[in-house]
Amino acid sequence: MVSNDTSAWHAELAWVGGERMERDVLIEARNGRIVAVTPNSAPTADAQRLPGLTMPGLVNTHSHVFHRAIRGHSQSGVADFWAWRDLMYAVAARLNPETLYRLARATYAEMALSGITSVGEFHYLHHDDGGQRYTDPNELSHAVIQAAVDAGIRITLLDTCYLQGDVTGRPLAGVQRRFDDGSFQGWAERVDALRPSSPLARVGSAIHSVRAVPQPALRPMAEFAAVRDLPLHVHLSEQPAENQACMAYYNCTPTELLADAGVWSPRATAVHATHLTEADIAVLGESRTSISMCCTTERDLADGVGPAIRLRAAGSPLCVGSDAHMAIDLWEEGRAIELNERLVSGIRGHLSAPAIAAALTHSGAASIGWDAGRIQSGALADLVTVALDTPRTAGARSGDALAHVLFAATAADIHTVIVDGREIVRDGCHAGLPEIGRELEDAVAGALGRDRDPA
After folding, report:
1. Catalytic residues
2. Domain assignment of residue 400, given as a range
3. What is the sign, positive or negative, of the torsion defined by CA atoms of 288, 234, 362, 296?
4. Residues 283 and 331 in one domain
5. Which pLDDT tens digit goes with each residue over 374-399?
6. Structure pTM?
């Protein structure tokens, strides 16, 4: 799937980084990498026109792809995160390699339609429905990777260690046995055997949480990631109950426990980071740990508003994820960081439009280990163009087009998506999966164990 020829695009408007917005930008690529960026250029005969605003492809740093099956099913009679988790576990119990592949392929195609060109898949569904390893211990990982490749987007499979039921070491039971490798060594052995064959895929690592991974395994996991130069992600302080349990058992916050194990570094990403102390914020910022904000999930689950602005000021790069896929729209995830902070602070203007754009693009790419997210020579040729003539974006050409798009556009406004120099979305339609709505309908019904409603 790697592009082996030269491609060129002529962008009406392009955000090429920093504060700059350029007009009439000629972007040239060879073998899937950008080789030249020339603003104020006339279109060449072979250049594809990109009317609208072109940006680097968006990067979704935190996805649980199978959660897509319960979108809309958790809005009635699900009182809190823990009740929602029981619903999610019911789906996890039913999936097999075929149904997971179908659901993941359709969901990743939905991501492509929204402008996402790379995804970090926080993957912990490892074994069969009895908790036993498949003949190929990474069969479910391969299914997810293949789904992303077939949908045309890059994937970092953040293989997740999940060994216990709570901080006290309660054994995993029921569907959670599908997540369990038995030990850090069992997890590491399986991950070392996972070798994606596609250039669109790479492997990363993840600590599910301080609830799910015992303290003696934390430092070995950090060392495992460092030696192999892997991204290392971790759910952090998503709910107050997690902090309370950690404090009661370890006499410290989750951030402090992970810091003592050497987890935090520029290679690491803390997901959510909602309930932090000022000392926690300082530790994360000083270590240059990235922060993946997942605002649509955090507000859906009533988790709270995390201190993203203070984390950024302390030194942590911000990026975004769609997490449980209540919606797949990174434009909303990005602006929600700023808008949520306005609600809790009563002050506007914490993040500029270029700062939000950076979180959606190159900061996210760095978090999951791809040399992407920039329109500059040498970067991977991943691009997204937003139409500027939709009901939401009309008027952008008369003002600050970048700010207009970031605060008003939605996934429905995407015109063109290019990954590795190849066009995967044109005129808002996916090149390989033209009927994504039907694909999703069938895949969700299969994941839920139901026949699709013929209506």
Report:
1. 272, 323
2. 6-56+376-432
3. negative
4. yes
5. 999 999 999 999 999 999 999 999 99
6. 0.96
